[in-house]
Amino acid sequence: MPTRRRFLRLSAAALATPALPRLANAQAWPAKPIRAMIPFSAGSTVDIVGRIVLEPLATQLGHPIVIENRGGAGGSIGSAMVAKADPDGYTILINASAHSAAPAAYPNLSYDVVNDFAAVIPFGSVPNVTVVAPSQGIKTLRELVDAAKKGSFTFASAGVGSATHFAAERLRLSAGFQAVHVPFKGGPEALTEVMTGRVDFMSIGISSGLPFIRDGKLLALAVSTPKRSPTLPDVPTTIEAGYPDSDYTFWNGMLVPAKTPREIIDKLYTETEKALKNPAVVQKFAPQGIDPMPMKPAEFDALIKREVDINMALVKAAGIKFN
Fold first, then answer.
1. CB 250 within 8 Å of CB 128
2. Is the N or the C terminus of the chain less surrounded, counting Cβ atoms within 10 Å?
3. Cis before residue 30, ω within 30 degrees of 0?
4. What is the pLDDT of residues 29-82, one digit of tens each?
């Protein structure tokens, strides 16, 4: 019997051994710089919001966070790179609502939005604002809709399946007009085309559009939030303008590869939550109209899963065709 008990103790120890290095790595994390993938171009809303949060987060963690912008395909190119990265906490994804829209926009994705990622924390929701060039002569959202119903209209986005794309599609579906979608690699490129009048309108995150609105290069017609944005208090919501179910939640947040150790996810959550309460972050968020979205990782995961289904239904209802 003593021999058998000794064998069982040795077997149990052998089974537990592989878990020890992982636990030690999680406890020691981070021990080197972290790569943050932002799957949209520099200057996009996701990029602006992400940089505001990551700066104090890097200080708290004691290691640099190196940002890599890899735009294209509605954020799916950069996201695919993170899905395939080692789940060791040294590669994180800063994305937006485009993440949960990707399955509807790209049926042949190389990754699974729900199963290949673990959500960490949302940074907040950013109001999308529908904008046109002042040269268009359009003053209200109603005038935009009426003009679109009479002629051939175009709208720009930061890529197929991006929040800027689906926000415009929700408005188009609710208002009942047709418009040709013109996707770009990111928000700044799309805004340039709207400002010149080469593309008729766009639903852009306030963080990206606000400087041009204040400079008079763009005219804000409506915001996509259920309530008016304190940043643009005189601009009505799309619902106020008479278009029910036209609102769109444009969240920004952090995700990691699915098999990242829970200890690392929990630490990322705790430290990012702390960064979001940093007075400097709060001060920078305020003029951009970013609303808090307090959620634990499990709640954020559940939100993404629900949104995948909602976006699938939107694509079907709007009759959106993807090449």
1. yes
2. C
3. yes
4. 999 999 999 999 998 889 999 999 999 999 999 999 999 999 888 899 999 999
Residues 6 or more apart in contact with residue 273 via CB below 8 angstroms:
121
196 φ/ψ angles, rounded to the nearest 5 degrees: -80, -15
The residues near 59 (Cβ < 8 Å, ≥ 6 apart) are none
Residue 157 identity (one-letter amino acid): S
Over residues 207-256, the pLDDT tens digits come to: 889 999 999 999 999 999 888 998 899 999 999 999 999 999 899 999 99
Which residues make Cβ contacts (< 8 Å) with residue 56, sequence separation at least 6? 275, 278, 280, 281
Range list of β-strands (E), the chain: 34-38, 65-69, 91-96, 117-125, 128-132, 154-157, 180-183, 201-205, 219-223, 251-257
Helix and strand totals (H; E) in the chain: 12, 10
Tell me if the pTM is above 0.85.
no
User: CB burial class (10 A; 0-12, 13-18, 19+) of residue 2?
Assistant: exposed
Domains of the chain as residue ranges with CATH: 8-125+250-318 (3.40.190.150), 128-223 (3.40.190.10)
User: DSSP secondary structure string, 95-137?
Assistant: EETHHHHHHHH-TT-SS-TTTSEEEEEEEEE--EEEEE-GGG-
Question: Which tokens sit at 314?
Answer: 């939107």
Calpha distance 298→313 (Å, rounded)? 23
Q: What is the largest CA-CA distance in the chain?
A: 92
Q: Which amino acid is at 220?
A: A
Q: Of 256, 158, 260, nearest to 204 (Cα)? A: 158
